[in-house]
Design a protein that fits this description.
26 strands; signal; 10 helices; Metallo-depent_PP-like; glycoprotein; globular; Immunoglobulin-like; hydrolase; Purple Acid Phosphatase, chain A, domain 2; 448 residues; seven-stranded mixed beta sheet
């Protein structure tokens, strides 16, 4: 006869572990594993920087990157920290960060990471950011990529190896979820993207699926830059900006507007930071060098999906601000500061909007809506593939220019100060480009 206390304990255990019972957990916790894994790159705050981040499952006291152009002949040491996941098992791992500096612009480097005593990763390579603003950066952009049903991942891996991209912009929602199964799903996901992220900078923003334990897996595993290139990771992962060629990218957290149980102060801090960042980006000398201002945040202001997400409602929090008080909304701030493009995800579909402000379409002209548009252009690209499949659409709206719920991702290239090109790739249609358009702007300034 099974004792009632045992059954009660088992029910509690299963509830705490999301119903996941692994009888091998004791052996896993005792396993010794020093090999570097989950290797990924990110740009630093300065063009001469590249940040290498990796994980070891057992504590390794050294964090070293050996690198070079023709041969591996230089080395730099960095820092490490113990990350303890908030799940039932309290799994811990060591996160390593090394900042490479004084890189030669546009040069390709070989590197590996690890420790001369405990072991090295495979050899990878990357290209340092080209100098100045007179080059044409190429991006892959997507959100909502999971460990399971990562439909677009093989094609993105292929294209990265073929040199399609200078950087990746992952617009929130990783792994589904990074914290699932005591963070093992997050570990598996970061190993899945290693064939991309170990070769080109993988720039991120948080989504709602990173919420567990106050976004701790996301905050600890990635290494986004602060303003002066002296600190990486931590709260910098929530909001930051970076200059890439003629583009100024602002990454921020829409989730601060929804997970207010973690505090309201961060909403205020982020809003003030964005306000100041936009002020500096719009100084005449800065806007002349980097005229394209592009934002990336997870939850859209607008969408036409057949669900009850905020972007289907007029009172969207990110757009209008917090309920009732209507403060810290971002649409007016972006409009006033002449943001050119707003990148979003969250909806498991692709949608391109006409230039829009406050639900009013403000095309450049009837014949050429994206030539000198009178408001920002919104792109929702959350269909990279995850276990939650597609999101369907509701009725067509007049502000929607094109939409599709094929699995896929977006490509963007800033050709120069006046021409920005986008195309949407359908993985379901074997890589076919199902949408493409140019944005042409003679002047980049406030829309007021």
């Amino acid at each position: 006869m099974i004792h009632w206390n045992f059954l009660s304990s088992l029910v509690i255990f299963l509830s705490l572990t999301d119903g996941y019972l692994n009888l091998g957990d004791t052996e896993i916790l005792n396993e010794v594993y020093y090999q570097p894994e989950q290797v990924h790159l990110s740009y630093g705050a300065r063009p001469d920087q590249m940040v290498v981040t990796w994980v070891t499952m057992s504590p390794v006291p050294e964090s070293v990157v050996e690198y070079g152009i023709d041969k591996i002949d230089s080395n730099v040491s960095g820092t490490s920290s113990i990350f303890v996941d908030g799940g039932f098992l309290r799994r811990n791992m060591t996160v390593h960060r090394v900042v490479l500096e004084k890189l030669i612009p546009g040069k390709s480097y070989k590197y590996h990471c690890g420790s001369p005593k405990y072991g090295w990763s495979d050899i990878f390579y990357f290209t340092a950011m080209p100098d100045g603003t007179k080059w044409s950066p190429r991006f892959a952009i997507f959100g909502d990529l999971g460990n399971e049903n990562a439909q677009s991942l093989p094609r993105l891996q292929d294209e990265t190896m073929l040199g399609f991209y200078d950087a990746i912009l992952h617009v929130g929602d990783f792994a589904y979820d990074m914290a699932t199964d005591n963070a093992r799903v997050g570990d598996a996901f970061l190993n899945q993207i290693q064939p991309i992220a170990a070769y080109v900078p993988y720039m991120t923003c948080p989504g709602n699926h990173e919420w567990h334990y106050n976004f701790s897996n996301y905050v600890n595993k990635f290494s986004m830059p602060n303003g002066d290139g002296t600190k990486f990771g931590g709260d910098n992962n929530l909001f930051y900006s970076i200059n890439i060629g003629p583009v100024h990218i602002i990454s921020f957290s829409t989730e601060l507007y929804y997970f207010i149980n973690y505090g309201l102060k961060q909403i205020v801090n982020q809003y003030k930071w964005i306000e100041e960042d936009l002020r500096i980006a719009n100084l005449p000398e800065n806007r002349a060098m980097r005229p394209w201002i592009i934002t990336m945040g997870h939850r859209p202001m607008y969408c036409t999906n057949a669900d009850k997400d905020d972007c289907t409602k007029f009172d969207d929090r990110v757009r209008n601000g917090m309920p009732f008080v209507k403060t810290f909304g971002l649409e007016e701030l972006f409009y006033k500061n002449g943001v050119d493009v707003e990148l979003w995800a969250h909806e498991h579909s692709y949608e391109r909007l006409w230039p829009i402000y406050n639900y009013q379409v403000l095309n450049g002209s009837y014949e050429k809506p994206y030539t000198n548009p009178k408001a920002p252009i919104h792109i929702v690209t959350g269909s990279a593939g995850c276990k939650e499949d597609h999101d369907g659409f509701g009725p067509q709206k007049d502000y929607c220019a094109f939409r599709a719920n094929d699995y896929g991702y977006t490509r963007m290239q800033a050709f120069n100060n006046t021409h920005l090109y986008f195309e949407q790739v359908s993985d379901e249609k074997d890589g076919k480009v199902i949408d493409s358009f140019w944005i042409v702007k003679d002047n980049h300034t406030s829309y007021l």
